[in-house]
Each structure stands twice: as structure tokens, then as C-alpha cells.
Amino acid sequence: MAQTLLTAEDLDRTYMRLAHQFVEPFDDLDTLAIIGMQTRGVDIARRIHDIIKERFSVDLPLGVLDTTFYRDDFRTKMRMPSVQITDIPFDLFGKDLILVDDVLYTGRTVRSAMDALMSFGRPASVRFCCMVDRGHRELPVTADYVGIYVPTHLNEEIRVLTKEQDGREAVLVVTKEEESGT
Questions:
Q1: Domain residue spans in the chain?
Q2: In 3-state terms, what secondary structure has residue 111?
Q3: Contact 178, 155 (CB under 8 A)
Q4: Does domain 3-71+86-180 have CATH number 1.10.10.10?
Q5: Is the distance from CB of 170 to CB of 8 less than 8 angstroms?
Q6: Which pLDDT score is estimated for 132?
Q7: At a CB cut-off of 8 Å and minimum separation 6, what does 148 contact?
Q8: Orientation of helix 8-23 relative to helix 40-56, angle to 10°
């Protein structure tokens, strides 16, 4: 059985907080841009982007990044990878980017995202935002903006649900044994 860590209402408050944290360090928002990582990081990035647009009357550049071909385990997986769209419709040069994903775990996806971004250009800076930091890092990666810190066991999985992908909003923790029925 899944345990709910954040409800839809909790997520709304978290999106609002993150939106404010994104803009606070910048005197000039002209250099700021947001890039969501496929899949749920895109949904989270869009929510934060829309709040910034509504609250601060600033329409920040918004991009979408797929890291499939930049992953260090790309060639070791036996199944066919699910490649999704990358759409960065602006020049990265001189931009202060905020990269957004749903869960920070080992750090490997963030590392691959950094490699992917550098193939598109040289931003002024890159910051990282995740909805959930669950620990268990394998690489020296940390988030600049975090929705919630949740220390987990290795047999647990964090699921960030978005209405676009899952039909509802929530953050759940699921124990793998419970899910498999053992």
C-alpha cells in the first residue's frame, strides 16, 4: 500500500514556494529560464513557470529535456529506451537555468542532464530543483531547491503523480515488497 506524503493541496503550496524561491535571487529575470526533465519534471516546471507568469508578470523561457541518450546506463539496459521530446526553443548562452525533475535519487539522471544541456550551449549557471530528495546519492549532486526531503529505504520508491501523466496530484512512497505482493 502506498503512503501519501503530499496531497494535491500540499503540492500547490510547494509549487508556490518554489516559484518564489526561483525568482528571489535575481534582480533581473531576463537571464532566467526553466527546463523540465522528461517526464514529470516537465509537468512540475510548467506549474512553477505558470505561477511565476501569473504572480510576477514574467513569461520565462521554458524548455523540455530528455536525457535518454546521455545516461551512463543507456547501453547496458536490454530493453528499447523510451526516447521523448527535447525542446529548448531559446539560446542557452548566458542564461541562468533552473533544471527541474521530480525525484533526486542517485544523481545519475542529473549528471546526464548536465551533459545534455552542455551539448546545447553554455549557460551562465545551472541550478537544480526536485520535488522530492530521497537520498542514496551515488554522485556528488545536490538540489538547490527541494519540495520535500524524504529519507527512504532502498526497498521504497517515491512516486510523484501529476494530473497530466496520472490523472491526479500526489507524492507517494511505495514499498517494493508490498507492490509485488510478497
A1: 3-71+86-180
A2: helix
A3: no
A4: no
A5: yes
A6: 98
A7: 5, 6, 14, 131, 132, 133, 171
A8: 60
